[in-house]
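Inverse folding, one chain.
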């Protein structure tokens, strides 16, 4: 890995994983209202890793397992997850 690729990868990681983290938190708040502490963090980690795994598997299936498609896919999935979690009616 070159220094240039490393320096490009840092902001791309933020672009990809920050929406996933927000989506995991919002979905946990929606699905498990009273949960706090370690149990809530565990649910958030599992939901976030599920997003990452599914996006990677889908993009790998169609032959798009590369840096830019994965970054765009994770950012889009996380953003969609936040929008869907916030737009629903009562939980």
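Residues assigned per position:
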């Amino acid at each position: 890995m070159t220094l240039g690729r490393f320096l490009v990868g840092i902001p791309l990681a933020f672009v990809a994983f920050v929406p996933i983290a927000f989506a995991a938190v919002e979905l946990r708040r929606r699905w498990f209202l009273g949960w706090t502490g370690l149990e809530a963090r565990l649910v958030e980690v599992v939901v976030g890793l599920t997003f990452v795994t599914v996006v990677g598997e889908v993009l790998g299936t169609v032959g798009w397992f590369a840096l830019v498609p994965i970054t765009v896919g994770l950012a889009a999935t996380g953003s969609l997850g936040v929008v869907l979690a916030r737009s629903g009616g009562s939980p």
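The mean pLDDT is 92. Residues 3-31 form the longest helix (29 residues).
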